[in-house]
Amino acid sequence: MSAHPLEYAAPETLEDALALLATHGPEAKVLAGGQSLVPLVNYRLARPRLIVDINGLPLASVHADDGRLRLGALTRHHELEESPEIARRCPLLGEAARLVGNVRVRSLGTLGGSLAHADPAAELPMAMVALDAHLTLASSSGHRTVPAREFFRGYLTTALAPDELLTEIAVPVLPGAGWAIEEFSRRRGDFAIVGVAALVSLDGRGHVEDARLAFAGVGDRPVRVPAAEDALRGGEPADARLARAAEIARDGLEPPSDAFVSGAYRRLLAGVLCRRALGRAVARALGVP
Amino acid sequence: MIQRLLVNGRARELDVLPHQTLLEVLRDTLGIFEVKEGCREGVCGACTVLLEGRPVSSCLVLALAVRGRAILTVRGLEGEGGLHPLQEAFVKSGAVQCGFCTPGMLLTALAFLEHHPRPTREAVRGALEGNLCRCTGYTKIVDAVLAYARGDEGHG
After folding, report:
1. SS (H, E, C) chain B
2. How near does any CA of chain A get to the CA of B98, in Å?
3. A189 inside 8 A of chain B by CB
4. Is 1.20.1290.10 the CATH number for B85-150?
5. What's the gap in Å between the CA of A42 and the closest CA on chain B?
6. Nearest beta carbon to residue B19 from set A4, A34, A104
7. CATH code of the region A7-53
8. What angle do CA B59, B61, B62 make, to 5 degrees?
């Protein structure tokens, strides 16, 4: 028996769940897929007094409206991988989810859980920052919508207040955009040493209309590099342009060193992976299979 | 708190504390020792069970959170005639060494084959990448899964 004694509640309505969070504040922890929380509790790295199991709440629906794909916070990684509707409207999500952990993590892990946990090396937070997703945070006093770029505040830290619950993630549908995620990790399924998500849209002349680049593993949160995105826009997506943008991205990052690799190595890796991701994203935007 | 767990098609009533994982209650309360404890952080795959047909790490599931949902352990694979054909393939291929990873390998492979009945070798390797074999006997484990998928009888 590893964890310390705690209480467990499985509210059946959002209202009840939010009331529990309002009452217990930081003493309560939300249980979604449990793939980050349960190991933290097992090893006593987290010591919540109350577990609020939200799996009974109606937060698993996926639907499209108004140019956005609206994903309930309980959408599981395997649904991101397997759902034809999600693949049709936002294929970047499936590519990101396939890289998360192992098959058991993907059976239970949720989109909302991954975002709320906010590991800076994780794929889904990076994808949300690349997509400029909007996150709905609910509390018993109302709800608010936060852009992904403002949601992540630092290492394992988000804009969520202790009484708030992430309920929905709205992802803009980008018709015709090419996408790619590249990452390097020590073993398959590990958190990435560096990861990059690229999205590229071309206009009628085949010039880059819009480009987005988000990196994981290079700071305390997912990082966009606007200067590299600017360097891509407005011209043909020729090799030299992609290579130049990757160099700008690399030079704009200040990744940390850790026990495994140096910051300098991370920066070089980011440049290489960015160039590859841009190449694949452009090929997809051009319709090359 | 008395709860009902559904293990291998059989309802089990037992006392469950809020912090107990499914792995703990399976082994310590119910004596279901075919579910192995390895890393306790969801990485090794030794404690894999199928939850409504999907592989999960029983060490990362709170027992209270799976009340009334169908849990399958490797014992649940055995039919009246004895071992499941995939288990037979493991025996015939020499895919069992110390045996500690075997329950997780079997369950993960079966859940995968449900949706990919004729996999390539590479696909089987990918499907089992989250299950660690400390004996490093991966080649014969993959051989066994492929032999079963091909329907080989008697000489896996």
Report:
1. CEEEEEECCEEEEEECCCCCEHHHHHHHHCCCCCCCCCCCCCCCCCCEEEECCEEEEHHHCEHHHHCCCEEECHHHHCECCECCHHHHHHHHHCCCCCCCCHHHHHHHHHHHHHHCCCCCHHHHHHHCCCCCCCCCCHHHHHHHHHHHHHCCCCCC
2. 23
3. yes
4. no
5. 8
6. A4
7. 3.30.43.10
8. 110
**Is A58 at the interface with chain B, CB within 8 A?**
no
Task: Describe the crossing of helices B85-93 and B102-115 by its angle, rounded to 10 degrees.
Answer: 120
Q: Which of A38, A108, A189 is opposite residue B130, by nearest beta carbon?
A: A189
Is residue A193 within 8 A of residue A184, CB to CB? The reply is yes
**CA angle in degrees (0–180, nearest 5) for A86-A111-A67:** 40
B interface test, pick of A27, A103, A191 with most B CB neighbours within 10 Å: A103
In A89-148, the residues whose Cβ lies within 8 Å of chain B are: 101-105, 107-108
Homologous superfamily of the A178-285 domain (CATH): CO dehydrogenase flavoprotein, C-terminal domain (3.30.390.50)
In this prediction the pTM is 0.95
ipTM of the complex: 0.95
Average pLDDT for consecutive 10-residue bins of chain A (289 residues)?
75 98 96 95 90 97 94 98 96 96 97 97 98 98 98 97 98 96 89 96 96 98 98 96 98 95 97 98 91
